[in-house]
Write a structure and sequence with these properties.
The chain has helices spanning about 10-20, 35-45, 70-85, 100-120, 130-145, 175-185, 205-215, 220-245, 255-260, 265-280, 285-300, 365-370, 375-380, 415, 425-435, and strands at about 1-5, 25-30, 55-60, 85-90, 125, 160, 165-170, 215-220, 245, 250-255, 300-305, 310-315, 315-320, 330, 335-340, 345-350, 355, 385-390, 395, 405-410, 420. By secondary structure, the chain is of the alpha+beta class. It folds into three domains: about 1-225, HUPs (Rossmann fold), CATH 3.40.50.620; about 225-325 and about 420-435, no CATH class; about 330-410, no CATH class. The longest helix has 24 residues, at about 220-245.
Length: about 450
C-alpha cells in the first residue's frame, strides 16, 4: 500500500498520458510480455479511440539470454495482433558480456528501440516502469547515499531524452504493479514472468523482497525529492545563464557574481559543467565536487583538478577547462564517425583517413582565440581544442578541416547526450546554447514535473 501521494489506476494513467500528447503522434510501446508492459499496452489500446490522432505501435527486444525468449517475443506479437496494434521485433545479436549483463542489456534495448522509433517516426518510446520500480531505485540509491543532497533520491524521471533525439516516457511511474495485475486479471489477460526477477543474485530483487515485507510505502517523500531535484537544476540553469560564458566550447568562466550565491546551486552547476567540459558521462562525484567547493570557499587564487577539468580561481572569476593530459589521438577512417575525448563527434566525409588530437598552441594564436584572458589560461584552453590532421595539414580551429565541408566536428554534452532526464532539461538546454549544440527536441507531453 502507499500513503499520501495519489496513485492512478492503469486506465487512468493511460488516459492522462494520451490527453497530454501533442497530436498527431505515433507512440512506440516497449512490450516484453511482463505484466507492466502488457498492462500499459492494453490500457492504451482501451483509452485511444479511432480517429484520436494518436497511433499506438509496439516493439519487443529479444535479448537472447534465455532459450524461451524467442517464443515469448512471438507471444507478444500475437497479443498485439489481437489488439490490432502493429508490432516490431528486434533481437540483440552478437556476443554477450560475461559481466555487467544488466547494464549491457539495457543499453542494447534502448539502442534497438531507438532504431525502431527512427524507422517508424515515433514521437516517443513508452516503457512500463511502475511505482514499485521507482521505490526500488530510490532504495538502492539511498543505500549508497541517503543524504538529502543526493539527486538520485528523486528516482527515475517520468520523461528522458535519448540520444538527443527521442523522448522516452514512463506513464506508469506513479502506478502500482498490483493494480496493473488486477487490471489484467479483470481483462482476462495473462503475462510472462521473467525468472530473473526472482533471482536474489541481483540487488534489485533483494530490495524488492525487502520492500514487499513492509506494510506501506510512502510516496510523498519521493514526490518532494523530485520537486527539489527539478528546482535545484532550474536554479543551476539560471546561474549558468546569468554568470557563465564558454568560449570555443573549451573554456568556461564563472563570473565572481556567480561564486557568491547559494552553495548548493553552485555545486550542482559546477559538477555538471565540469562533466561537459571534461567529456564525462556523469557529474563530479560527491568527494570530487566537495574538494572543489572547499577550494572555492577558501577564496584564495589557485588551481585544483577534478574530473579531468582544471578549476583556476582568479580575481576576474573561475576558469574551467579540460586538463591537457590523456588526450589520445583518434584515427577516423574515410566515411566514418567517431567520438574524440568524449567531447566532440567527428564525421569524416572525406576520402582519406584523418587524425584528431591536440596540438601545441602558440601564444599568439591563443591570445587571438581567447582575448582578454590570462595568457596561461588561453594557452591551456587552446591545447585541448580538436585539431584535424590529414596529408600533413592541420585545421587550427573546431569545425574546419583540410577538405572544407567534408569533415564535421560537433560539440557533445557528455552527461546528457545519451540520457537527459526532464529534471535537467533547462540546465542541459543552457549548456547546449553555450557550446553551440543543436537544441533539444521539445517534450511531446506537458512537463508536469515543473507545474507549480
Amino acid at each position: 500500500m502507499t500513503d499520501g501521494a495519489p496513485v492512478p489506476e492503469p486506465v487512468e494513467a493511460a488516459r492522462r498520458l494520451l490527453a497530454d500528447i501533442a497530436r498527431p503522434a505515433r507512440l512506440l510501446v516497449a512490450v516484453s510480455g511482463g505484466s507492466d508492459s502488457t498492462g500499459l499496452l492494453l490500457a492504451l489500446s482501451k483509452t485511444n479511440p479511432p480517429g484520436s490522432g494518436i497511433a499506438i505501435l509496439a516493439a519487443t527486444v529479444d535479448h537472447g539470454l534465455r532459450p524461451e525468449s524467442a517464443a515469448e517475443a512471438r507471444a507478444v506479437a500475437a497479443f498485439c495482433g489481437r489488439l490490432g496494434i502493429p508490432h516490431f521485433m528486434r533481437r540483440w545479436e552478437g556476443e554477450k558480456p560475461r559481466t555487467g549483463i544488466s547494464a549491457a542489456s539495457r543499453e542494447a534495448r534502448y539502442r534497438l528501440l531507438m532504431e525502431i522509433a527512427d524507422e517508424t517516426g515515433a514521437a516517443a518510446i513508452l516503457t512500463g516502469h511502475t511505482l514499485d520500480d521507482q521505490a526500488e531505485t530510490v532504495a538502492m540509491r539511498a543505500a549508497r547515499n541517503g543524504g538529502e543532497d543526493n539527486p538520485g533520491l528523486a528516482g527515475m524521471a517520468a520523461a528522458v531524452l535519448l540520444d538527443r533525439r527521442r523522448w522516452l516516457l514512463r506513464p506508469f511511474l506513479a502506478t502500482r504493479r498490483a493494480d496493473i495485475r488486477a487490471f489484467l486479471a479483470r481483462e482476462r489477460q495473462g503475462w510472462i514472468d521473467d525468472p530473473s526477477n526472482l533471482n536474489p543474485y541481483y540487488e534489485r530483487v533483494r530490495v524488492r523482497g525487502r520492500l514487499a515485507a513492509e506494510e506501506r510505502f510512502d510516496a510523498v517523500p519521493l514526490v518532494r525529492a523530485a520537486g527539489r531535484r527539478t528546482a535545484l537544476s532550474d536554479a543551476a540553469a539560471q546561474c549558468v545563464h546569468d554568470h557563465v560564458t564558454v568560449r570555443h566550447g573549451v573554456l568556461a568562466r564563472l563570473a565572481p557574481s556567480g561564486l557568491g550565491g547559494d552553495p548548493a546551486i553552485c555545486r550542482h552547476a559546477l559538477s555538471l559543467l565540469a562533466a561537459v567540459l571534461g567529456g564525462r558521462a556523469h557529474a563530479l562525484g560527491r568527494d570530487s565536487i566537495g574538494r572543489v567547493m572547499a577550494f572555492l570557499d577558501s577564496g584564495q587564487p589557485g588551481r585544483i583538478t577534478a574530473g579531468r577539468v582544471i578549476f583556476d580561481l582568479r580575481r576576474e572569476g573561475l576558469y574551467l577547462a579540460r586538463e591537457n593530459r590523456g588526450l589520445t589521438p583518434l584515427h577516423v577512417g574515410a566515411g566514418e564517425t567517431a567520438v574524440w575525448d568524449g567531447r566532440y563527434r567527428i564525421a569524416n566525409g572525406s576520402e582519406v583517413e584523418i587524425t584528431v588530437g591536440p596540438a601545441a598552441p602558440g601564444r599568439e594564436e591563443a591570445s587571438t582565440l581567447f582575448p582578454d584572458v590570462p595568457p596561461a589560461v588561453a594557452m591551456r584552453a587552446m591545447a585541448v581544442m580538436p585539431y584535424v590532421e590529414a596529408n600533413s595539414l592541420f585545421s587550427p580551429a573546431p569545425g574546419r578541416s583540410p577538405a572544407a565541408g567534408q569533415i564535421r566536428i560537433e560539440p557533445m554534452l557528455a552527461p546528457f547526450d545519451r540520457f537527459l532526464p526532464q529534471f535537467d532539461l533547462n540546465l542541459g538546454s543552457e549548456f547546449a546554447v553555450l557550446l553551440g549544440c543543436d537544441v533539444f527536441p521539445p517534450m511531446p507531453v506537458k512537463d508536469s514535473a515543473r507545474k507549480s
